[in-house]
Amino acid sequence: MSTASKGPIEYGPPISLALAKRVAERAEAEALANGWALVFAIFDSTGHLVLLHKMDHAQLGSVAIAQGKAATAINFKRPTKAIEEAVVAGGMGLRMLAVDGVFPLEGGVLLMQHGRIIGAIGVSGASSSQDGQVAAAAITEIKD
Q1: Which of 8, 21, 93, 114 places its Cα 20 to 30 Å from the Cα of 45?
Q2: CA-wise closest residue to 128 among 44, 47, 36
Q3: Which H or E run includes 19?
Q4: For the chain, what is the mean pLDDT?
Q5: Residue ranges per domain, the chain?
Q6: Residue 143 has what pLDDT?
Q7: How many whole angstroms separate alpha carbon 132 and alpha carbon 74?
Q8: How far apart are CA 141 and CA 131, in angstroms?
Q9: Residue 103 CB partners (closer than 8 Å, separation 6+)
Q10: Whole-angstrom Cα distance, residue 20 to residue 27?
Q11: Nearest Cα to 57, choosing from 30, 28, 37?
């Protein structure tokens, strides 16, 4: 059944620090396995930063980008890849570039539990698709 037929996705209770740490550990393991120095930002369902993890030698600009990706996923209730794809497609999708604070780059993914949003992870420091790969690996523990 599609999400549209069930109604809008709801925000759930905020992710705990303990669970955010486990998500970051999974992200770091995937990054290390690929030799990438990345930054991970985990926001809770209220849009607040719970955990920021910068690996050694990660580029400094990735701190803000990881946070922007997580915030974008939370604020728009979708992975940032969907916004990136809308912009790449052009046309009406280009309107997203006018929205303040939107990061149309893959690597921001919702953290779901029991069908509700409990947070989001933003990953930055590699290519967008590599950031997305790490984000996807990080969330496997809490998927419904």
Answers
A1: 93
A2: 36
A3: helix 17-34
A4: 93
A5: 14-142
A6: 55
A7: 16
A8: 18
A9: 65, 68, 69, 71, 72, 80, 83, 122
A10: 11
A11: 37
**Closest by Cα among 53, 52, 43 to 80:** 43
Task: Give mean pLDDT, residues 49-75.
Answer: 98
Any idea which fold 14-142 has? Beta-Lactamase (3.30.450)
pLDDT, tens only, 93-131:
899 888 988 999 999 999 999 999 999 999 999 999 999
Q: What is the pLDDT of residue 76?
A: 95
As a whole number of angstroms, the distance between CA 121 and CA 105 comes to 13
Which SS3 state, helix, strand or coil, does residue 32 take? Answer: helix
Phi, psi for 21 (deg, rounded to 5):
-65, -40
Give the containing element (helix H, strand E) for 133: helix 128-138
